[in-house]
Amino acid sequence: MRPVKSVPMPAPPADALLLVDASAYFFRAWFAVPDVFHDRRGRPLNGVVGFARALAQVLGQARPAAVAVAFDQALFSGFRHRLDPGYKANRVLPDRDLAHQLAVAQALVA
Fold first, then answer.
1. Which of 14, 71, 85, 90 is the most exposed place for a label (fewest CB within 10 A)?
2. Which helix (H) or strand (E) holds 17?
3. Which pTM does this prediction carry?
4. In the beta sheet, which residues pair with residue 21?
5. 21, containing H or E segment
6. 42 in helix, strand or coil?
7. What is the pLDDT of residues 49-100, one digit of tens each?
8. Numbers of helices and strands, H then E, in the chain
9. Whether 41 contacts 90, CB under 8 Å
10. If residue 38 lies in a helix (H) or strand (E), which one and from where to where?
């Protein structure tokens, strides 16, 4: 098997806008980054650290003129729930650590 070659990103236009799906990056980090980062109160920050690293990498590569970051807030009230009331009906609320980290990640990008 041949190694995968990195393809350089073309230079964006001077007025490029980058739209970031923060939830996708955050949840990937939540599951992938080991639980070794904690705040002063002992709460884990693995999702925040991984999210910040991913965001910094994307921004460093893309170098956009502006950035918009969107978090998915509709755990139980999005358009999919209106179309199908049973959509992810078994989903439970995020635990306290996850909810805390989402709030920290949102503050980070604000």
1. 90
2. strand 17-21
3. 0.76
4. 70
5. strand 17-21
6. coil
7. 999 999 999 999 888 999 999 998 766 677 887 888 888 778 776 788 888 9
8. 4, 2
9. no
10. none
